């Protein structure tokens, strides 16, 4: 099956006992057994489910569905993108180990690395990943992981996955990529040899802004370790959120195709506008499109607050990836935890606006932004 077909039918081959067209929701904390022999069968690996924190059909479907599209052997879902990142990192790194991470990280991941991992005794060095020489120079004897994002937030730098994997292989260090912005529709990091791929399924995988979820994919052996972390830390996803994630996932291809094409048109239109200093929109991401996020730097004379007030139907939301077009102000939201000096170095200025382009009519989207720019 090709990507789009696999994308819609992923759930059907997962459980042949099903007769319901839509997967039932196993809204339960535990599974019951006929007798002790039946329970023994679970521990012998003849039955799949016992306790929802350890495993549930709806959350497992989401992990397997994303793994299938990423071209990975296995996948596991968790309660959020951040908990997925934490579980993935802890499957590779322990106290005393060192990680090199890109300095243009998603703000929440930056917080997790700079605060929580450091508190756990895992040292993190932040480096400029657009320069792999600097990454190499940041590595130490005890470095176990190189961490980056396939398309970064909010300036949409596209990671050189080939180069990064080569660097990791040369020093026998694992690589982990946050593929949230690209999704497997555009980029499949495992195809480059990346060891762990992580998603905030809160974004495009779910696609409808109605769940918080995360997924980690990789080889069966590495995902087994990630799952153990999720189980032991109690950061499992709930069954209903797993079910909603699967329902969202089925339309990933349609949504990404439409949203990327709308984004391309918006980026082109805004690039011509006098009140926009710069448009950030990636090039050469994939033959299917360049993604659905457009970031703009407003001209110096523009009042950012007034611009946000004049966006009519476009929602001001501190997230991305829904079917509705929305905007956010990185300095005031995702990059609030990032120190000012680093923000300035990265080019995350107060005049920056990140647009998550939805599935609406192209022309309506362009007109809404042109109107807000004319204030
Ligand atoms: C949102 C996001 C996260 C964090 O995910 P949550 O689901 O909010 O925990 C991590 N990485 C990227 C790129 C994100 O956009």
From TrEMBL:
Essential cofactor(s):
pyridoxal 5'-phosphate
Locate the transmembrane regions by residue number. Answer: none
Q: What Pfam family is a match for this entry?
A: Cys_Met_Meta_PP
Which molecular function GO terms apply here?
A: transaminase activity
Domain of life (superkingdom):
Bacteria
Q: Which UniProt keywords apply?
A: Aminotransferase, Pyridoxal phosphate, Transferase
Q: Which family does it belong to?
A: Belongs to the trans-sulfuration enzymes family.
Name used for this protein in its record: PLP-dependent aspartate aminotransferase family protein
Query: Which organism does this record belong to?
Result: Evansella tamaricis
Mind giving the lineage of the organism this protein is from? Bacteria, Bacillati, Bacillota, Bacilli, Bacillales
């Amino acid at each position: 099956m090709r990507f789009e077909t696999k994308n819609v039918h992923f759930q059907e081959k997962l459980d042949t006992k099903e007769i319901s067209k839509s997967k039932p929701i196993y809204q339960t904390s535990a599974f019951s057994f006929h007798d002790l022999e039946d329970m023994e069968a679970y521990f012998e690996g003849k039955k799949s489910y016992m306790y929802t924190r350890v495993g549930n059909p709806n959350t497992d479907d989401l992990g397997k569905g994303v793994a299938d599209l990423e071209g990975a052997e296995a996948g596991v879902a968790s309660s959020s993108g951040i908990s997925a990142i934490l579980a993935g990192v802890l499957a590779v790194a322990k106290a005393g180990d060192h990680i090199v991470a890109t300095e243009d990280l998603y703000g929440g991941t930056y917080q997790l690395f700079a605060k929580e991992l450091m508190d756990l005794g895992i040292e993190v060095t932040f480096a400029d990943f657009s320069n792999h020489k600097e990454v190499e120079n940041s590595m130490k004897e005890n470095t176990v992981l190189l961490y980056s994002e396939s398309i970064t937030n909010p300036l949409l730098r596209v990671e050189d996955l080939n180069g990064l994997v080569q660097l990791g292989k040369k020093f026998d260090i694992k690589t982990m990529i946050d593929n949230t912005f690209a999704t497997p529709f555009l980029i499949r990091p495992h195809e480059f040899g990346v060891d762990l791929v992580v998603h905030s399924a809160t974004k495009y995988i779910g696609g409808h802004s109605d769940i918080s979820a995360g997924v980690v994919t990789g080889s069966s052996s590495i995902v087994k370790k990630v799952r153990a972390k999720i189980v032991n830390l109690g950061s499992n996803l709930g069954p209903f959120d797993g079910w909603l994630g699967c329902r969202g996932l089925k339309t990933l291809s349609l949504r990404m195709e439409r949203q990327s094409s709308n984004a391309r048109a918006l980026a082109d239109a805004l690039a011509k506008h006098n009140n926009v200093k710069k448009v950030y929109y990636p090039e050469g991401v994939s033959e299917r499109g360049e993604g659905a996020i457009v970031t703009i730097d407003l001209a110096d004379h523009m009042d950012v607050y007034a611009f946000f007030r004049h966006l009519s139907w476009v929602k001001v939301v501190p997230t991305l990836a829904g079917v509705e077009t929305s905007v956010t102000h990185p300095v005031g939201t995702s990059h609030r935890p990032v120190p000012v000096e680093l923000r300035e170095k990265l080019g995350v200025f107060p005049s920056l606006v990140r647009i998550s382009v939805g599935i609406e009519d192209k022309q309506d989207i362009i007109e809404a932004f042109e109107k807000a720019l004319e204030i």
